[in-house]
Each structure stands twice: as structure tokens, then as C-alpha cells.
Amino acid sequence: MSQTMRAVDIKNGTGHADALFINDSTPKPTASTGEAIVKVKAFGLNRMDLLQREGHYPVPPQAPKTLGVEFSGTIESLGSGVKEGLSVGDEVFGLAYGGAYAEYLAVNTHMLLKKPSHLSWEEAAGIPETWITATQALYLVGEFTEGKSVLWHAGASSVSIAGVQLAKNSKAGKIFVTAGSQEKIDFCVKELGATAGFNYKTQDWAKEILDATDGKGVDVIVDFIGANYFQGNLNVAAKDARIVQLGVMSGTKVKEVDISAFVMKRVRFEGSTLRSRDVEYQKKLRDRLWEYMEKFEDGTFKIFVDTVLPWEKVVEAHQLMEKNTSKGKIICTIS
Question: Does domain 134-271 have CATH number 2.40.50.90?
């Protein structure tokens, strides 16, 4: 059996999208205790991949250097101590600490799910990071309960697409989104069921949300933007609101900010990265994700795949994500 495989690599270790290439002499992983080796059929792109490619993402120590955390494929082999009821040949999808941009990856079986027949390889590869992150942000960190209002920034991003659907299914009072085009706002409202959306390029989204809530504000805010939205998030936060910070696309340094909301409105601010969590924490979220499978099948929850490309076009895939024009997942397939 070959000790090498093909995997996406980065010239000189870090760089722009055009530094990506397929390295056909990458060492093939072996399964440690509790792990499976999965032959990858498809993998999903995430914004952390762009940051990692450029050397700006804190990769967990147990992660290989190869990009990618979500995937679908078939189990080629199993290490010792596997107790998940999995067998060689099973069709699976899941979440890894890294290594999904490859023909094979090693992954803890606690983070694998058997792929239902109603999901395509491409759909399955676009679920794990997206829906688990949205679940963690909304329920575990944001402490959402029925009737609360929610604001999802980057409304047409894959995580927010999942989040809007989760909030709607859990009977949110109101669901707001921000996005950079009317097309994306219409998608969030008409396709996903958001209450209203606001164009951050042409509108004062904070003022609009306060007007839409009669000055009350929003109970749970999920943000990927960071510095540029920090003050606005505090302004639109309702009393006892939770602000969940999942990204810092606009930077991390805020020059001037009025922090009175933390005291006067009892606002709680908490950041999170799913990738840094331990296996047991991720397993709990994996188990919750499995509960959604019936809703994917009956159409309650929809998977939006924007673009599918062969992995030979991974440079084009990364460049597409950098344009911020997609609505839903960008998926690469391995033939």
C-alpha cells in the first residue's frame, strides 16, 4: 500500500490563493487509537482556510498542516478502540482538526456521522463545520431560547444560513441579518425566513435594527466582522443580550468605544472558535447535529451549495470565497 497521497499544499508554506497546488508526495496518515482513515470524496471551504493559508490562523497542535476541516467520504480503515459502530466501507461525513484537502485524512470517530442516502457527497461535506458552529453560537454560547430575537451578521455566509434556519425552527421572536447586497438580503428573507435584512454598505444597520425593535434591541448577536461592528453591536444589544464573536474579518483593534452597555444593559460578550475545542465537546455537538438529519430530509432545513469545483481548481475556489459573492457553501470534489 502506498505511503503517500495527493493533498493540497502551499508553496513556501503560506501565501495567496495562487500558492495552492496539489502535492502528490504528501505522507498518507495512519489511524491512531479511536481514529478512522477516510478516503475523501468532497470537502468544504471555510473562511478559516483562507486565514490559515496566509499564516494568520492559530492551528490546533494536533492538526496536520494540510487545510480543511469538513468532508465526506468512505472509511478505508479503523484504528483500535473505535466504539462508534462504524465499519470499513461506511459512507460518512464529519469534522476534523485539519487535513480534509486530501485524498485521505485521519479523524477521531467521535466526529464522524454516517451519511444518509438522501444527502449527496457535496451536500454532506458542507454540513459539519457550518451547522455545528451555528448550533454552538446560538444555543451553547448565545443561550438562545424560544421568543428571543437574533441578529446574524454576514447573513448569506454558510454559518448564518444555518443559523437563521435554526433560529426560525426554534421560534425566534425576530431574526435580523446584515449583508452587502440586496440580492443577499432578499435571499435571507425570502428563502431562509429572516424577518428583515440590512445592507451594511448603504444603510446604518444599527439604527435600522433599533427602529425595527422600537429601541429594544436584539437578544442574541452573532458576529464575524469584529472591530468595525463592535460599537454597533453594543448599541443594538438588548438588556441581558449575548454577543457571540466568531470572527474578526475587519480587524481586532477598536480605537474608541463606549462600553457602558456592558454595565447599563448587562451585556455579555464571548468569543469562540470551534476548532480549538476538545474532542468530547465536539462530540456533543456532533450528536446534536445528528438530530437534524430528519429535518434535512423533510426539507425543514435546507443545505445551500453555491458552487462545486473539482479540487484541481482549488485556487479558483479560494479566489471565489475571497470575493464574498457566494450564498452558501463552496465545495471541492476529489475524483
Answer: no
